[in-house]
Amino acid sequence: MALADHDRIPLTFGPSPLHPLTRLTDHLGGARIWAKREDCNSGLAFGGNKVRKLEYLAADAVASGCDTLVSIGGVQSNHTRAVAAVAAYLGLNCQLVQESWVDWPDSVYDKVGNVQLSRLLGATSRFVGAGFGIGIKESYQQVLTEVDLRGGKPYAIPAGASDHPLGGLGFARWAVELLEQERAAGVRFDTIVVASGTGSTQAGMLAGFAALGERRRVIGVDITAKPAETRAAVERIARRTAVLLDTEFTDEVILDERYHGGTYGIPDEETLSAMRLAARTEAMITDPVYEGKSMAALIDLVATGEIARADTVLFAHLGGQPAINGYSAVI
Ligand code: PLP
């Protein structure tokens, strides 16, 4: 099946903005750097990569006749906020499980940012103590059962919308969109740098490029500090998504394990200084959990020449700014 044959409910403004980061490029003095901005891709509650992924899951949810979207993530999960936004937009109920993935001292960490927005969007959040992980959790099964017992019809969306059969399609479409934007702008990206967590963003890109017959270097930046699991997820989802597009993904996944800062959700000094540099050269806001870390990777790879000076590199900005409110202790 071609990508265009998969049902999709448009939830974004259209192609996400693509633009050069001229001051950052000049500052680093290496490869030319551009950004493609999922952080401003949609009018739904600050958008982000999850809104793009959910375009395909939303179509499936509506077709299933469900009345409640159920999902799971950390306390400051951008994904659960996006599910809450999509539920509100589609007129569905939303039940979220928020796990304590991050041990962070800021006293408002579990009150502001993404959880606050989910509340405003009408979702119900259940807080549970559990570490980072994308497996199927008991708490999540329990919420699904409870919706069933109340006579509702739940639609289950796993963490990051990743371990879902349709989870990779959104970013396969991103690859198609990028090629059209490249043609229009007269530019070609040799290398793409993208944060990798639950995996379906990088995996979708890889499957999308495979379906297009395009060979690009997509450098995933592990932000989980559990890179073996991230790599396995990206491989699995890329293969599965490629099959949905009548193609195969057989390449090796590139995952850089040097920039997660030691712990999921906790920024190290490199992350914080990368966030400051992006903000002070481009007024581009990144968060301490995801894009602060992939920005730290990009800066280092360009500054050290691991991404060659002759290259044109794309920073895939996936969103995530609302979580910043929970990090006032360091930002
Ligand atoms: N950037 C942001 C802002 C995110 O919310 C996520 C989600 O986990 C990622 C990057 C990583 O994307 P993925 O989980 O698809 O690997």
From TrEMBL:
Q: Which reaction does it catalyse?
A: 1-aminocyclopropane-1-carboxylate + H2O = 2-oxobutanoate + NH4(+)
Per its UniProt entry, which superkingdom is the organism in? Answer: Bacteria
Q: Tell me the Pfam families matching this sequence.
A: PALP
Coiled-coil residues are none
Cofactor (UniProt): pyridoxal 5'-phosphate
Spell out where the chain crosses the membrane. Answer: none
- Please state every residue range assigned to the domain named Tryptophan synthase beta chain-like PALP: 11-318
Gene3D superfamilies under this entry?
A: 3.40.50.1100
Keyword tags:
Hydrolase, Pyridoxal phosphate
Q: Which NCBIfam families match?
A: ACC_deam (TIGR01274)
Which family is this sequence assigned to? Belongs to the ACC deaminase/D-cysteine desulfhydrase family.
Question: What is the protein's given name?
Answer: 1-aminocyclopropane-1-carboxylate deaminase
Q: Specify the species.
A: Actinokineospora diospyrosa
